[in-house]
Amino acid sequence: MILPAIVLAAGVGSRLRPLTERFAKPLLPIDGRPVLALLLRELAEAGCVSVTLVTGYLAEQVERFAGDGSAFGLSLSTARQAGPHGSADAVVAARATPPYLVLGADTVFASGEIGRFLRAFEHSDAVGAIAVRRCANADPGRNGVGVIDGLVERVHATGSSFAGAPLWAVGAAVAAVIETLPGERPFELATAFQQAIDAGERVAAIEIEPTRDLTAPIDLLLENFLYLSSL
User: Fold this and answer.
1) Nearest 10 degrees: Cα torsion 107, 110, 114, 119
2) Residues 121, 173: Cα–Cα separation, whole Å
3) Is 119 in a helix, a strand, or coil?
4) What pTM was estimated for this model as a whole?
5) How far apart are the first and last CA of the chain?
6) In the 8-state DSSP scheme, what is residue 19?
7) What pLDDT does residue 183 have?
8) Domains of the chain, with CATH numbers?
């Protein structure tokens, strides 16, 4: 199964200020290369060669870097989100036909993990999937995911040993919920997935290897230390 992908690159990256006052968060480096470049190449390796890049904050900077995607082995189009109205709103802006993948533009996945996630979803009978990472203490207020027998029970769960990662597979049933979410903003993908689960739909929890993320300014040094040491 080869799915199109929606890459969410509209966020401000407020926790990375002052770095993001001049540079879009997806263009900050890990191992000396922009995070977005690493992600787009990984998508190409997974066979997801049709990509919609959703931009917002510093949109022209991000769009200029990505171009038409040919430098990364992709066919890339762009869509602009009108404001910081949440991840589900960004997906609506992309106007994609399900099934499709959705990814955050500020995370680097281990080599081959996007393709493995895609194959796991393909071989499930689920209407969608959420990538999860095993951790000692998931943050129950933000990204702890309740998992039972490989299925998501609660998108936000207290005391879970799994944390969510910004990688989702969206089938037609979940996409239909996204399209019908109320106009109150912001609205998030988590809301759509939970509504689908509450309606009796099966959403797979697919465990992936640890990811690399830039969350705070110190992460820029930590995630580039080995690269800088080798220069």
Assistant:
1) -150
2) 14
3) helix
4) 0.91
5) 41
6) G
7) 62
8) 5-229 (3.90.550.10)
